[in-house]
Specification:
heterodimer, A: alpha/beta, Oxidized Rhodanese, domain 1, 9 helices, disordered C terminus, B: alpha/beta, 5-stranded parallel β-sheet
Chain lengths: ~220, ~210
Amino acid sequence: MNQQTHLKDHKKISLKLPLIIVSFVILIIIGFLTMREPERKFVVSVDDMQKAVLQRNETIKPEEVLKIINSADESYRFIDLRNPHDFIKGHIKGAINIPKQYLLADEYDKLIKDTSKINILYAKTHDEACGPWMILKQLGFNNNRILLGGYSYYSKTGTLAQNISPKDYLDEKPKYDYAKVVKSVSGSAVIGSSKKKKKIKIKRKKKKKGAEGGC
Amino acid sequence: MNIKYVISASLLVLLGVILAFLPEKSHTTEIGPDKLLSELNDETRFVSTDKVADNIINGVPSVQLIDVRPAEEYNKFSLPDAINIPLDSLLLPDWQAYIDQEGIKTIFYSNGTVYASQAWMLSRRLGFSNLFIMKGGLNRWIETIMQAKEPDQTASSTEIALYEFRKAAGQFFGGGTQVAGSSTNTKKKKKVVKKRKRKAAAEGGCG
């Protein structure tokens, strides 16, 4: 009799077995299908982005910007990536303020996707606008240009074209002959201090454990 | 009854097959646009020239400097022990092994800040971590370290201490040593690089 109930139980379970497995499978598949996919994805590969970066042609010179402002060219749109505080203090006429952390926010989605105009991105410096430009470029938007020299240069020269010179606004242009400057620093020090070579003593900062992570 | 077992077994096999194919698409170390953008607001990726000078003087071993300028500029002048990885060869597999070292703090530098930032962006998108940018680049290096400006008499003690550090650092770096050191080969320092295996998929980027 005992064995009979056993058999019965076994039968019950074996009847349900496929059901259990099927629901198990479905559950896992649903899990995978509903897995959160990132909303946005880069459409330009890293290698292509590197090429785009090396081409260095999606920038715009301050003198060109002056022309655009003076002619009120409608095919351009200025986007100010700085925070609202700096924006209020001063900005290029007609610029739209999109603080760079909100670049991909829903609020500006329509504007970013509107490729009928060329956006001139600017921040305080060239390199600050570079990151946002790279993100947009990698998302497939090709209508963005970076203002060389950033707003800091633009505001310095004002609207006077004659004050603009490329050597001042190109961030990557070497301003010095590095090797020469470095040589001259100790060279003069050595010559100046008679024959004796100055012993250079450098205060070594004590390293605390935390100090390294600091920067 | 037997059929039931066959069905359940085959279902499980099917599940196994599905699972084997499913994760493929989400299996990348690449960083998406939203995360990258949020990291752009984190200013801690910038390192000052003073900090870099301090690292070199103290010989901090867990830091490497990467010069992203073209080789000819690197050969004319570079910071001590910097490795030259020009921006156009940044993504070559051999160099990736240098950049992708989690335990080592990698600091990119160029003449200004732009190229180093671009190198940072590209490497960061690939998911490499512990990357930094020397803010202001070599132009600022010269201005702050080599040609430190004496502060006013009214300057605070921290400013004076900074000036003293810069002056001493300038003498440390000054002189012919750096220039003479500009050897012709691009790799100054041979380093043992832990090569991490990269799957072929990583190269193609996000399709």
